[in-house]
Amino acid sequence: MDALVQLNNVTKRYDDGPAPAVADVSLAIEAGEAVAIMGPSGSGKSTLLNLIAGTDRPTSGAVRIGGERVDRLSETAAARFRRRHVGMIFQFFNLLDDMAVIDNVLLPAQLARTRNTAARERAEELLATLRIAHRRDAYPARLSGGERQRAAIARALVNEPAVLLADEPTGAVDRGAGEEIGALLLELNAAGQTLILVTHNPDLAARCTRRVVAIADGRIESDTWLHSQAMPPAASRGADW
Amino acid sequence: MSAVLSAARGGIAGRKLQAVIIGVVVLAATATSVVALGLLANANGPFDRAFARQNGADITGAVDPSAATPAQIAATTRLPGVTAAAGPYRTVLVTAHVTAPGVPGSSPVPLRITGRSSPGGPVDDLTLDDGTWAATGTQIVMARGDGVFPGSTVTVGSRKLTVTGVADSVTGTADAWVLPSAVGALAGRAAPVEAQMLYRFTNAASTPAIDADVAELRAGLPRSALLNAVSYLSVRQAEQSAIAPWVPFIIAFGVIALVISVLIVVNVVSGAVIAGTRRIGVLKSIGFTPAQVAASYVLLSAVPALAGCLAGAACGNLLAIPMLSVNAHVYQVGTLGVPLWADVAVPLATFALTAAAAVPPALRAGRMSAIQAIAAGRAPRPSRGYLAHRMLSRFAAVPRPVTLGLAAPFARPARTLVTVTAILFGAAAVTFGAGLALSLDRVVADNPGTALPVQVSPIRPGSGQGGSMTVAQQHAVVSALAAQPGTLHYVAETDGQLSLPGLPETVSVTAYGGDPAWSGYALISGRWYSRSAGAAEADVNTLFLTETGTSVGSAYPLHSGGRRVIVRIVGEVFGPGKNLDVYLSPATLGAIAPGAGPQQYGVALRPGTSPPAYANTVSAALGHSYQASVSGAPGRTLEAVLALIATLTILITAVAGLGVLNTVALQIRERAHDIGVFKAIGMTPLQTLAMIVCSVAATGLAAGIVAVPAGVYLHHAVVPAMAHAANSGYPASMISVYAPWEAALLAMAGLIIAVAGALGPASWVARTRTVFALRAE
Fold it and tell me: In this predicted complex, what is the ipTM?
């Protein structure tokens, strides 16, 4: 079976950098998997995530999601691809401050010109699932860190993406909220959502994922399966690609 | 101080685009203002200098010597308020033939000849341009400007006079001068002699003051003795008609450019303060005082503004040269330039204005708390615009990037207001400029050259012009015109010149055989003269009414060769310039000048008829003894004015567009991270472009709609001022130039300015890679 996310010899070099941010990385992630990418600051974790999301392009190598060469897409095609197939969660939430929670969540669906009724139904359902429906009309500035990240997760999932990319999702919330976010991600993955999680937090990685890819100086140092689970769940959304 | 300069230099380096925008808009404002002031100064300057040098006459009076004794006339020189006087000079109005050596033929011209023993005197100290003053009774000195030079001959009746010199009177007190003893011989029995008196007064700076002086003179003389009194102010205004009409609209454009510059500077500095919150915090934390912080932010705009001022002054001088050359030609003063005081005052004032505009936002930066500024880290989040986002997100039928863009102006209402105002002024300039061009088009349309594009006349041996057509010639031309299928209608035209008592200039008289409305001249008020034989009616141009103190409905006596006819003025004709024009029927002209007959025929053509082809056909039909010519294109001056209007309109529009560009650049700088988020969640480059363009499009459209009435109002204020400067009133057709569809089109100007200004930065952001946008702070 082809991997949902496939990186082949991917290198990313910045003009001003003495060494590549990502060096000759090859990685395959199956649909339904939950993978943690770990490493120290500056090791290239976030760059790798950006390359998978198509928000950045590799200097060399190939990035495929569901067989699509993401690295070869134009900016427009990459944006269309991302809005349909990739959900992103950020450390600092990146909610738009001048929009209420419901409007933040609806935004990717509206950009994708999803039918309004369907988009609203999906957004309301997600807010309920993520236990934030009671804050649907609040503005981000009025939310706690945990609530903001749950709103961000709802926004990432509104277009039912094949892959959910999370960059330090608990990095800016307190311990309790962090555990809550972790539990949510675990639930999502259990429901079949493919998850790629960048984190410093080994507990979060252990709790939410079954595979840990360790990266240092832009290179994969280890690729470890946890809990003796070598195979992803059979029923996954990504399998329908 | 070096720390402040260093901080300002760093600020400018980080905002090169804004610095360039400030420099360019200040350049445009300075250049326009320099041109306006340069023209304004030179419109009055040369005349005033010549007037002062010659001790020009404030009032030139024509006194009837049969109604006032020499003692009574002399008594007027001692009236209170009279500071200097000259005269009485015996003056006679004659018809003369002037012959220049080497130039074949001559034509009759009316001359006002004044007897003076020398060119000097306490008032109207003439400048002798060429030759010598008249020394005998057969010598004459001609006024400057008629192409006559020493050695020419002037024939009055049977007397032949030799031109010995050419002189200039700044107020045009006479067309020629002879020795006082020679005047009587020239007058003969038919021509009336008047006594010319020249006065200077203590108070003669304004029209009311001149009116009071004239009233004093009138009261000092027997009733009806003062035939006419001409003010130097009306002469000056007539002389200025070459460039004075340009001044009002250039001033209007200059003011618009200045206002937009100030608005842009306010936006740039405010934006720098908002976007540089962390920087301000850092500056304060390392020891900058509030005054030093404020000074560094004023310098942020002051440095590029200073560069713009200096470059603008240079450009303004270059722009003014071709316009001033027109005035230089009028006064024969070689070259004219922008006065030094204007070159210094305009850049200084513009610089002070733009620097002052930067002070309030800079003071805000100075007052900012260091801790808060550092803690905020970047621009404080706007707390406005939530409702707009909420409401607009409801419109599911409208693409989301569009509604996101439309909501953006509500986040920063003050900046939006400033941007709206800048676009409004730019769009108003478009409406105003378009209206001016349309009005000038009407000026071109409302003249005989357009209405009667073909002229037919017999070719006369010798001078080639002047004499009337014989009856046979008239029949031949009428038959030829009637036979042409392209002929719409035609008028017979008789032209002549009259010198009237008390008027410094000769009066142009035109009689149309046919409907005078066909002449193409527009009526400002009243109606055209009646063509019936006994009507004795006339139409005149505005300057005639001004200089004679008459109005539509007045009666006015016309004289020629001892004949006198009192005509009723029934209409005011649009005839700008420094000529006095009278239009009357051939019958009325015949009563003054019995021998006058048509000299040419003006022909209007049916639609689709080519004037050159028509002229060729008529020439062929009439043979070699006649010529059919086509009216020339509008004058170069008019073309230059139209080009100037277009240039200034484009300049102002570009400046307003730069204002939009600046606003969008600030908006992008502040919202760079949000734009990164939009892109990360799937906003395409085209959607990004649409969002940013829409963030100013509605603003531009609203400003454009408001700008139309504003531009129309400005047009309605400036066109009368231009007409007045050209010594004329204006017909309604010159003001009512905006058709509804044109107004609707002009309302789009704001939208176009906004979109054009936003497209550059929006395209740049749309192309930016998502990862770089996401990292932006």
Answer: 0.79
CA separation for the pair B735, B442 (Å, rounded): 9
Percent of residues, chain A, with pLDDT higher than 70: 93
Domain termination site, one of B380, B401, B432: B380
Chain A residues with beta carbon closer than 8 angstroms to that of B766:
75
Domain assignment of residue B340, given as a range = 1-56+236-380
A84 touches chain B (CB under 8 A): yes
- This prediction has a pTM of 0.71
Rounded to 5 degrees, what angle do the CA atoms B713, B718, B723 make? 135
Given CB atoms, is B679 within the 8 Å cutoff of chain A? yes
3-state SS class at B533: coil
> Quick check: is B222 in a domain?
no
- In terms of Cα–Cα distance, which of B742, B735, B733, B699 is closest to B718? B735
Residues B282 and B151 in one domain: no
With respect to residue B213, please indicate whether it lies within any of the assigned structural domains: no
Residue B290 vs residues B87, B273, B302, B352, B621: alpha-carbon distances, Å: 73, 13, 18, 21, 89
Which domains, from first to last, does chain A contain? 5-240 (3.40.50.300)
Say which residue, A193 or B380, is predicted with more confidence. A193
Which residues, 6+ apart, have CB-to-CB distance to B552 below 8 Å? B525, B526, B545, B569, B570, B571, B572
Q: How does pLDDT run across B482-538, given as a tens digit for each residue?
A: 988 989 999 999 888 777 776 766 788 999 988 888 888 889 999 999 887 777 899
| Interchain contact B687–A (C-beta under 8 A) | yes
Residue A80 contacts B where some CB pair is shorter than 8 Å: yes
Residues of chain B with pLDDT under 50: 332-334, 377-380, 461-465, 777
B-chain residues within 8 Å CB-CB of A165? none
Residue B422 lies in a domain: yes
Letter for the amino acid at B249? F
Q: Quick one: B622 and B713 in the same domain? A: no
Q: Does the distance separating the beta carbons of A53 and B682 come in below 8 Å?
A: no
The answer on pLDDT for A239 being more than 50 is: no
Chain B contact set for A159 (CB, 8 A)? 682
- Say how many domains are in chain B: 4
Q: Which of residues 101-120 of A touch B (CB under 8 A)?
A: 103, 106-108, 110-113, 116
State the Cα–Cα distance between residues B188 and B201, nearest whole angstrom: 35
Clarify whether residues B131 and B278 are in a common domain.
no
**A83 neighbourhood in chain B, CB within 8 Å:** 681-683
Contacts of A100 in chain B (CB under 8 A): 386, 390
Of B34 and A87, the one with more pLDDT: A87
Residues B332 and B345 both lie in one domain: yes
Asked if A76 lies within 8 A of B407 by C-beta distance, the reply is no
Nearest Cβ partner of A96 from B390, B399, B677?
Answer: B677
Candidates A80, A81, A93, A98: best to mutate against B (most CBs of B within 10 A) is A98
**Domain membership flag for residue B507:** yes
**What are the tokens at B374?**
């550092």
Q: CB A107 to CB B385 under 8 A?
A: no
